[in-house]
Amino acid sequence: MLYLLIIELSDTFTFFNAFRYLTTRTGAALLTALFVIFMFGPAIIAMLRVRQGKGQPIRKDGPQRHIVEKQGTPTMGGLMILFGIVVSTLLWADLRNLYVWSVLFVMLGFGAIGFYDDFLKVTKSTTQGFSGRIRLLLEILIAGLAVLVIMRLSDPASAGKLAVPFFKDLLIPFGLFFVFVGAFVIVGAGNSVNLTDGLDGLAIVPVMIAAGSFGLISYIVGNAVFADYLNVHFVRGSGELAVLCGAMIGAGLGFLWFNAPPAMIFMGDTGSLSLGGALGTIAVAVKHEIVLAVIGGLFVLETVSVIVQVVSFKLTGKRVFAMAPLHHHFEQKGWKEPTIVIRFWIIAFVLALIGLSTLKLR
Question: Angle 151-153-156 (CA atoms, 0-180°, nearest 5)?
Answer without folding.
Answer: 70
